[in-house]
Design a protein that fits this description.
By secondary structure, this protein is mainly α. It is built from 20 helices and no strands. The radius of gyration is 24 Å and the shape is elongated.
Length: about 375
């Protein structure tokens, strides 16, 4: 499963071309650095900086406004004030601060502006403009901008879709130290997009990104361990560890996977309460695809236990609405209706499941049980 985390692009894809750190900085500047410096800024000590999602916007705005007042021409302080405004959803002010920093050649600011244009935050959504800004950031030496630009080429947003170009950009970023870029190369290798299809190589690249903390890569290593791909034998216990690492970073697909793991007792003791917990997290935090899968899984969990059938019916219908082409979701709803004694309603639903997947033995058995009930 590939991962594109545009929140990361706003927050994390900002980080190079800055002034050297002075031995002694004015107090407002030090406080602005403490509250709003980007972890990708090479002008601050390694391992410092604040992830975008962790910025205390109100405190950072106060500190960075004072810092910019003291040092109005310092591009790093301007950029950090932009991050503070950005974190507070004050996009007009963020754009003004980022632009002031970009006008002074600050690469992080070009990338931040690119992310706002890509997402349409404070400006009309314009992926072509985003691509141009990411290119300027990359030209200024910003490694993460290469990844963001690669994502646009991968998706064909603002530029002509070009997997080979995306792979080239990811490779450049990986060669410059981006573990995340290795994960994106892994996804291309897993699927044979722009590079030779090679699951063993994909796993190797995913592991680099996973070791670097990329949640999507941790999840994808888990999937390969579950399915026994990439040259691996299936290993449910090890897969559970990787899903857990990704879930700790709120990677919603891993919530769904953990729900499945606990439901089936794969690699961990079976625990239906934990299964329900993780399916609910996936529904609450996932995108449309994840919500659809998790809704169906939670509905089926309730069906297998013959509990909460009214709620199960509702979430099963939500799963179908999210993607009516998935046969399993129709089967889940049909069986819930059967358990509720509503076989006349269940029949057309199970027939739709069979239309989509006519040779599924479980669907056939469910259809036979529903038809038999209607004859009694």
């Amino acid at each position: 499963m590939r991962s594109i985390v545009l929140a990361w692009a706003v927050a994390g894809a900002v980080g190079l071309l800055a002034l050297p750190v002075q031995a002694t900085e004015p107090a407002p500047t030090a406080e602005c650095d403490r509250l709003a410096a980007s972890p990708n800024d090479v002008s601050i000590p390694p391992g410092t900086g604040v992830e975008f999602v962790d910025i205390d916007a109100a405190a950072a705005i106060t500190a960075c406004e004072a810092s910019v007042k003291a040092l109005p021409d310092d591009p790093r302080q301007l950029h950090q004030l932009g991050r503070a405004y950005d974190a507070a959803d004050q996009y007009d002010r963020a754009i003004a601060s980022y632009t002031a920093a970009a006008d002074k050649g600050y690469a992080l600011a070009f990338a931040a502006l690119g992310a706002l244009h890509e997402l349409g935050l404070g400006v009309p959504e314009d992926p072509a403009k985003a691509a141009a800004l990411y290119q300027q950031a990359a030209d200024g030496g910003m490694v993460e901008a290469l990844v963001n630009l690669g994502l646009l080429y991968e998706d064909g947003r603002g530029v002509a879709q070009d997997y080979a170009k995306a792979a080239s950009l990811y490779r450049q970023a990986a060669d410059k130290g981006s573990t995340y870029a290795n994960g994106m190369l892994g996804w291309l290798a897993e699927n044979g997009f722009g590079v030779a299809k090679d699951e063993v190589e994909a796993l190797r690249l995913y592991r680099i990104a996973a070791d670097g903390g990329a949640a999507f890569a941790q999840h994808n290593v888990g999937v390969m361990l579950t399915e026994g791909r990439g040259g691996l034998a299936p290993d449910d216990a090890e897969a559970f560890k990787y899903y857990s690492l990704a879930a700790e970073q709120h990677w919603a697909p891993s919530y769904n996977s953990l729900g499945w793991v606990y439901n089936n007792g794969k690699g961990v003791a079976k625990d239906l309460a934990q299964s329900e917990h993780f399916f609910r997290l996936a529904i609450a935090e996932g995108d449309a695809d994840v919500r659809g899968d998790a809704s169906n899984n939670l509905a089926w969990l309730f069906a297998t236990q013959n509990i909460h059938l009214d709620e199960a019916e509702g979430i099963a219908r939500q799963a179908i609405a999210a993607d009516p082409t998935v046969a399993t979701r129709h089967d889940t709803l049909a069986w819930i209706l059967h358990l509720m004694g509503r076989d006349a309603e269940a029949l057309p639903v199970i027939e739709e499941a069979l239309r989509l997947e006519s040779d599924n033995a479980e669907f056939i058995a469910h259809a036979a049980a529903i038809r038999a009930k209607l004859k009694t």
